[in-house]
Amino acid sequence: MSTNSMSRVQRIILKSIGALLLVIIGAAGWTGFQLWRSWNTVERVPFDTATSRQALGAGPGAPIGTGDEGDPPPTDLYDDIVRRTVEIPDDVQGAFLAIGGDNRAGFGGNRADVILLFIIPEDGTAPTIISLPRDLYIPNPCTNSFSRINVNLNGCGDINGPELLAIAVEDFTGVHVDHLVVFGFDGFEQVIDEVGGIEICIDHAVRDEDAELRLPAGCTNATGAQALSWVRSRKTLEYVNGSWRTMRGVSDLTRNERQQDVLLQMLRKAKAFNSVGQLTDTVQSLAGAFAIDEGLSISNAVDLAWNARSISPETVIRLKIPVRNYTTSAGAAVLLPTQSFTEVLAEAYPELLAQLNGGEPAEESADQQTG
After folding, report:
1. 173, 162, 171, 85: which is closest to 130 by C-alpha?
2. How far apart are CA 215 and CA 230, in angstroms?
3. Which of 29, 242, 351, 366 is exposed most, by the fewest CB atoms within 10 A?
4. Are 128 and 88 in contact (CB under 8 A)?
5. Looking at the chain, which runs of residues are DSSP E strands?
6. Closest Cα partner for 100 from 190, 188, 213?
7. What separation in angstroms does the CA of 343 have from each of 1, 131, 319?
């Protein structure tokens, strides 16, 4: 082959390589643009608990006064339970707070109907879901008095509701909340419908007129509206032997279990995403259904959503806060915690407590209680 012929071949090869590189770069740029556009359509919530704590001028150790719902419970609750939480270092875990808001007209302001804390330890210890009952009666970081935890979603002056609720959760658990996601009832339904529904299996047909719930016996691929009714139902009736009766064991705490069921099914749904692009398209279609905190960058949001596919729902530890009924002097029916969060972990999941405390044995944690 002549020198000129070789030069022409080389030029053709170089041009082909150049064209291929341009295509690759263009595709990468387009994918990046799609990611940016999709996640930028998601509403952002200002989130800086450290700065907000300074603005509040009070922490877990501040004196507790009387709130709108009546006098505080016996002092042993505050001294022996609320204050007995180990301050867990925020560099050894990742904690994400999911908040479902209830701002129906005439309901009396914003209320958190769903409060789920999801802890993903960095050492590979099994992830954990903790449900905090909406009527949990603990110190309110805004008023410095006791109140239901869910009223924190109303905010405090310039501090927004999700941020204040995160502070209340941090004070009770000792776990630093890294990021949060907030959704309303409409958003909840939209997310469920977008992933093709979730499965609800029951032995008998159920109904709850207040929650607009009606499901047949057996397994139902529930729509978003049906799933919402199921997790909201507090007066579930079941059809047994030709008549309707109250479903056994149903209480407000049952809603927490159902909420966890839904979240774990959503994790299973995440495994169906075959590419980041498919995930991005889903996020774009759900813009407006939920909000995330401002501190969560686009790249981190993508990584978190994509890496959620690797979490096996069967390995997730499910915890609940033990409570007892209590009526304030103002007549408010609330729930008092009967154990500190540290004690709950020490009994139910000592491996996580040891990891959260920097690797120290769980049995030593009681000696490190604050207060």
Report:
1. 173
2. 9
3. 242
4. no
5. 43-45, 93-102, 111-121, 128-131, 137-140, 145-148, 179-183, 198-202, 206-208, 213-215, 218-222, 237-240, 243-246, 290-293, 317-320, 323-327, 333-337
6. 188
7. 82, 15, 12
Q: Which of 28, 27, 31 is nearest to 279 (CA)?
A: 31
Mean pLDDT (the chain) is: 75
Give me 22's structure tokens: 């341009």
Instruction: Of 332, 344, 347, 331, give the one whose Cα is nearest residue 136.
Output: 332
Question: For 357-370, how does the pLDDT look when each residue is reduced to its tens digit (9 = 90+)?
Answer: 765 544 443 343 33
Measured in whole angstroms, how far is the alpha carbon of residue 230 from the centre of its chain? 18
Torsion on CA atoms 272, 276, 279, 281, rounded to nearest 10: -130
CATH of domain 45-184+273-368: 3.30.420.590
- Largest Cα separation within the chain, whole Å, is 101
Domain boundaries, the chain: 1-40, 45-184+273-368, 196-252
What are the beta bridge partners of residue 283? none
The answer on pLDDT for 111 being more than 50 is: yes
Q: Which of 263, 296, 259, 275 is nearest to 42 (CA)?
A: 296
Axis-axis angle for helices 3-40, 276-285 (nearest 10): 40
Categorize the per-residue pLDDT at 107 as very low, low, confident or very high, splitting at 50, 70 and 90.
Answer: very low
Phi first, then psi: give them for residue 129, nearest 5 degrees: -115, 130
- Residue 262: how many CB atoms within 10 A of its CB? 20
The 10 Å CB-count burial string (b at 16+, else e) for 57-68 is ebebeeebeebe
